[in-house]
Amino acid sequence: MSDQTESESFSPFPAITDRPLRMGVLISGGGTTLLNFLEQIDSGLLNAEVPLVIASTSNCRGVERAQAAGLNVQVLRSRDFEGTDKFSDAVFASLREAGVDLVVLAGFLSLLRIPEDFRWRVLNIHPSLIPAFCGHGFYGHHVHEAAVQRGVKFSGCTVHFADNEYDHGPILMQAVVSVPDGCSADQLAGLVFEEEKRVYPEAIRRLASGQIQVRGSRTELRVAEAD
Prior knowledge:
2 domains, alpha/beta, Rossmann fold
């Protein structure tokens, strides 16, 4: 995904500190991650705005919630396009028109091809500690069911740059939760989501600060030194 060597580091995202970060939020389900962003914005914890929400289906509750919040919502269904490339072209054309700085995948289940001008500008959160329980077929509740079935003692969530492979791009942040004995998939989902609510906005804040550096397949947080 990068032309840099393993020993070189670079800043993939310019600092945006003089105005709100413009986020395009992509959803396929209930929109709970979107609601968390809006709560963070309203409370002043996240200096951002959401000029566009794109939903992959008109039937998800997230569409209702986004409209109730007064947001601009577009429904783009992959089945209405001739293949992933055409669908992706339409999605990113809408995001360009809305002038978004960052694309945030919030439970978006349709496959996308990320164009070059959005490289390093798409984030995703996955409900496990990548590389565990990730890749094709591991999404949503399937992840928690697999983790419980395997009997893991710890799980969590991962915020990463999205690229054109499932759950593959460099990791920005992870959070760990303990899995109690007898924990169900539903209970694990609740535990993990509480961490998602905290970690996803924090990852966005770090990215917007311009302090994220990428070295090979890893990210580093470069904190500015005090004068």
